[in-house]
Amino acid sequence: MDNVTIMDHPLIKHKITMLRDKNTGTNEFRTLVEEIAMLMGFEALRDLPVEDVEIETPIEKTSQPMIAGKKLAIVPILRAGLGMVGGILNLVPSAKVGHIGLYRDPETHEPHEYYCKLPAPIDQRTILVVDPMLATGGSGADAVTMIKQHGGKNIKFMCIIAAPEGLERLHREHPDIQIYVGALDRQLNENAYICPGLGDAGDRIFGTK
Ligand code: PRP
Ligand code: URA
Prior knowledge:
Rossmann fold, 33% helix, 32% strand, binds 1-O-pyrophosphono-5-O-phosphono-alpha-D-ribofuranose, binds uracil
């Protein structure tokens, strides 16, 4: 699939396996989500634009690259996406953070919007949408649609685990965006949970049930 990158780094694979383990507790789970987001972010942000700026080393004046322009907006899909924000901010501390609130109806599995706040000027930023799980793809696809409606153009989507159904849907509805996936799993079950997956990401990050 064009525009889709499935991560292949042993460190990411190792940490995702730890995340899947049902014996991994909330504290360790949070740390792992943040670490995986940072490792994936390193790859997803490899094309951030840079521009040369004048600085002076102890030896001489020189022109060297720094991140250019209005830079980055990180946009977590609430709630679980919040767990990934710190990892990306470790890489780009100057990034702005927007929020999109969506929850899946437990019966229909359709996403419902409850919040949207994005940093201006959104049309001039690289936008990294983060959510640990891409299951049916409904939440991810709706989040990207909302960002486009607000003027967002250069959009990337990053998830830790995707189901084939969700990846296919997000790519079909938004073929223009770059998608980064930590691990591509086998399938969805009858409750639209990813198999083998890691269970409910939001509950595991926040310790709810
Ligand atoms: C989870 C997850 C995604 C969504 C994925 O959130 O964090 O946002 O489900 O499912 P989909 O691809 O089928 O839309 P959830 O709706 O459980 O909300 P929460 O993060 O507040 O727990
Ligand atoms: N949301 C989750 O948190 N986990 C899944 O497996 C599917 C949707």
